[in-house]
Design goal:
single chain; alpha/beta; 9-stranded mixed β-sheet; two-stranded antiparallel sheet
């Protein structure tokens, strides 16, 4: 499966042109003003100046509960350490990432960024369940229904003082990072994040084999920025999502269903708070201040979860959404339009529709109380012809159900050439009619016809999980959208002018004033967005123990 962080060859020109410009003596912004490296440090300053009180979590665990140490057979143990990565190894990874950026960039890394990376990084698999915690009234609803009894897991990266070997003491800020679509249920950070980098780095240095770079970075996935964030002195949390990691044997995956991501975030947040307090003997705590980033499906997860955390009183410093899909309805329209237009190509990322279309359709066909069409057998998103109980080749639920879903290669081999065929024909026709009417919102465009068409409950489920309105008026914290008009998976037409009328929403630009990743396809754009965000975040220098007014950004 293609991973955005393996796109180094495609990013080399971008790294040279954009990143070097970002750290040069001056560069031009879209307004024509000249700025220096302080711009990167100042990028987040406006919204980091006002302190707030957020949930600390000392008494979150219910008296009758404790953090669980169970694990899935063959996987890492819950609430146990995975490994330790030294500061020098973190710096080595950083230099590998930007090795093609030229001498100026290398000098910047060694002279400016390296001093900010002060800590070793310990990795842990932290687990918990809704039933473990006394959730606040603002968050309790996300634990109702499906997943209430699930054992959620997250990768947690923790800053370690290299002099004492202990967790850095004090109030620690947090980075929440959300991964993109994983068709292989084992391909999540709690399983793949390396326990150590020393052997891989030594092998790379000895052989010079660039394929080892891909293996090294690929093993970290979207947790890679978290490694850097933790070395700065922050916590980093990478939730596995429901149906992955510790919950994989007991619960099916969901897909673009808002509550399931909120639930994973809530449990991960509370479990990490409880674990940190215990592990540090009460000397460290989560500050209740967070920076959030997600890619593709992860961008949807981050956006949904940001609203929950904000309602809980957590202060959100910034929300970065890379190649986001914010509307299940828009995604279906975009897929149908490309198939009907003959635009699907093995050289484009839209070829991936064959792999994840069954997951999209099945997510809104399970009998889950999370969605409005639950219990309506005649309004599943999966076509009836692909839910045949006694014929495995035509039984998508059997392909995907836990605990033993089949792999992505098998899914692709079983899929029809025309991926929309697995969706309920009435929904596909609704999308086609919307396209003919020059609309990207079929459920609203044909609202008066939905009952007659037999898709009213399906449309209700889709609109309940649409996050475009949240972007337009609901986010009240700095939110950056990093997307590309050339993306063949996540439609750029989701993001309209009224969205950017929200003063908190903007499109990601480099210091040269150009949109990051413009024109690139889904995977390359995701990589460009992640790399851009990483260097900006590091330059912000978020270091614990510094007074708020003295923060170096």
């Amino acid at each position: 499966m293609m991973k955005p962080l393996l796109m180094l060859p495609l990013l080399s020109a971008w790294l040279s042109a954009v990143l070097v410009a970002s750290i040069g003596t001056t560069s031009s912004t879209s307004s024509g003003s000249s700025v220096g490296t302080s711009v990167v440090r100042n990028a987040l300053s406006d919204h980091l100046r006002h302190a707030s009180i957020a949930p600390r979590g000392e008494n979150i665990l219910l008296p009758s509960r404790s953090l669980q140490s169970t694990s899935v057979e063959g996987t890492r143990e819950c609430n146990a350490q995975i490994g330790l990565i030294g500061r020098d190894e973190v710096l080595a990874v950083l230099n590998i990432l930007y090795s093609e950026g030229g001498t100026e960039l290398v000098a910047y890394i060694n002279g400016v960024l390296a001093p900010l990376l002060k800590y070793d990084v310990a990795s842990y698999k932290i687990c918990g369940a809704c039933l473990d915690f006394d959730a606040t009234s603002a968050a309790a609803s996300v634990c109702e229904g499906y997943g209430n009894d699930a054992l959620h897991s997250s990768l947690v990266l923790v800053p370690i003082d290299p002099d004492t070997g202990d967790v850095v003491q004090g109030s620690l800020r947090t980075s929440l990072l959300y991964h993109g679509t994983r068709m292989d249920v084992d391909d999540v950070a709690t399983n793949t994040f390396p326990a150590s980098l020393s052997e891989g780095l030594q092998e790379l240095q000895a052989s010079g084999d660039t394929s080892l770079i891909e293996a090294l970075l690929g093993s970290m996935g979207e947790a890679l920025p978290g490694l850097m964030h933790a070395s700065l002195g922050n916590l980093a949390i990478v939730p596995d999502y429901l149906g992955y990691g510790a919950s994989q044997p007991t619960h099916n995956r969901t897909y673009f269903i808002r509550q399931s991501y909120e639930q994973a975030t809530l449990v991960s947040w509370y479990a990490t708070q409880a674990w940190l307090s215990q592990a540090s003997g009460g000397c460290s705590e989560m500050e209740g201040v967070v920076s959030m980033e997600g890619t593709s499906e992860g961008a949807y997860a981050a956006l949904a979860s940001s609203s929950l955390l904000n309602d809980m009183g957590v202060r959100i410093l910034g929300l970065r959404l890379n190649v986001p899909v914010a509307s299940p309805e828009a995604a279906l329209v975009y897929m149908v339009a490309q198939y009907d237009g003959g635009l699907i190509s093995p050289t484009k990322d839209n070829a991936g529709f064959t792999a994840f279309s069954p997951l999209s359709a099945w997510a809104y066909s399970q009998d889950l109380p999370l969605v409005a069409n639950s219990g309506y057998a005649n309004q599943t998103l999966l076509a009836a012809e692909w839910m045949v109980d006694d014929t495995f080749e035509r039984n998508v639920p059997a392909w995907l159900e836990s605990p033993d879903p089949i792999g992505v290669e098998e899914i692709v081999a079983l899929m029809p050439p025309f991926a929309p065929d697995v969706f309920r024909p009435a929904m596909v026709q609704l999308a086609r009619d919307a396209i003919a009417a020059n609309s990207t919102t079929p459920c609203n465009t044909f609202a008066d016809e939905l009952v007659e068409r037999g898709v009213d409950r399906l449309c209700e489920a889709s609109l309940d999980n649409d996050l475009l309105e949240l972007l337009a008026s609901g986010v009240i914290y700095p939110t950056e959208l990093c997307y590309s008009s050339g993306d063949t998976v996540a439609p750029a037409f989701q993001f309209t002018d009224d969205m950017f009328a929200n003063e908190f929403v903007s499109r990601t630009v480099g210091l040269d004033g150009r949109h990051i990743s413009e024109g690139a396809d889904h995977g390359a754009a995701a990589g460009a967005c992640i790399f851009h965000n990483l260097v900006v975040y590091l330059a912000a220098g978020v270091t614990p123990g510094i007074a708020e007014d003295d923060m170096p950004y």
